[in-house]
Hints:
With 504 residues, the protein is an alpha/beta fold. Helix content is 42%, strand content 22%.
Amino acid sequence: MKLVLNGHDERYTVEQGMLNLFPGEKPVYGPIGPEDQSWAIVSLREDDSCHVTVELCWRGKAVPYSLGVPLEGDAFQREGIRRRAIGRCFFLAARQVTGAAPPWGMLTGVRPVKLPTRALAGGASLEQARRQLEEDFHVSPARAGLAVQCAQASLAAQRSLNPNEVSLYLGIPFCPTRCAYCSFVSAGVGRTLQLVEPYADRLLEEIDGLAQVLERAGRTIRSFYMGGGTPTTLTAGQLDRILARCRAALPLDSCTEYTVEAGRPDTITREKLEVLKSRGVDRISINPQTLEDHVLAAIGRKHSAGDIAAANALARSVGFRCINMDLIAGLPQDSFQGFRRSLEGVLEMAPENITVHTLALKKGSTLISQGGPLPSGEEVQRMLDYSREILTQQGYIPYYLYRQKYMSGSLENVGWAKPGTESLYNIVMMEELHTVLSLGAGGVTKLIDPAAGRIVRLVNPKFPQEYLSAGDKQAGQREEIAAFFLSPAETPSASSTLFSGGKM
């Protein structure tokens, strides 16, 4: 789509609108010629108000749309008003010319729940928060309802937090094989077996270093999450060594949630589960993604649906009382009926938490490089709508939600839980409620100062090989963490960002 911007340079806003309503189009900046069938002219004029005009042509059908919004507040607030006005005008013009009604309206950000959370915290009723999403951002009633429910969980989590608490993520970037949809920095152990032991050694050093920082700063860990990759790719001995060091070194006495992703059933053994249980792990994930064997094969899984049921039964026999299971809507060779069977099969196993993801086509995944047929956006939405209906009927509540780029149907990922089993880590991580420290390759630490509305991000090396030789960098990061905790108001903010809600 040809784009012409007059009186502004809000490229990101316009391109996000394109991604939302014209997902197959790519932005091209330049003069519009008579041969162009898809183009937009987005113009901005200002006086006491912000006047936006969009002339948009799609497949030869052209429409104009304009709106005016008063400019108020300081420079930062006025910039936000301009950006929202441009985004809204483009969205309304695009909706008019395409006839499309995206389920999340004009919202394009990862965290749409921040908008109703902010409204509720400011004294709005549930109905007022829902109506704001529907009327101001054109979110569908079903998605607005989901967001408001998750906002309630976010506020409850926020009220439970102590200012001296943090959460901890520990990454294990190894898997038995790489799934076709995966873009995470993870390595199959078949090719990188020689890296696993030195990686564990390096991780122990990082745990010890962080423990010293937390002791200096007087911080304790409220929730612990070991993810990946697939942590249970490690041997029972390796898991025990890492978790024992965590218990010995880290301030975990007030930790109320201790999660390890068991993930792949082909990595689960009784010995490993007993190690997890003995070291205090009280929540695990067993993630089928689907219970359709032909779909498992299509995504590169080397196990069957029967293996998932066996792994779940084994985990229950070891004594785990909180199990999460993930499903993905939109996998290759899947269908609505297949997804329905998978969800109903998962419900028969009665996990306390069920996370329903929407397939996101990400760079680096084999689905991108190899292609292949996928369920349509309409069919994926049907899957999600069914999951919302049946999970609600079965007594699950939505408690966290996020979106990603390039998702089928521009939809969402939703975590569902039996009341009282919501994962605190998932909420604080996604809603950025307090500091989340990350250890291991690919980890992203978020130092959060809620009072100042500031986030400082510190990124670990992505690949295991790089991580093994990054001792100096990580020592520097530990000093940054200590400085942030000990004098947050004086911490340099060059790498910081302000809290934001659902983007438009």
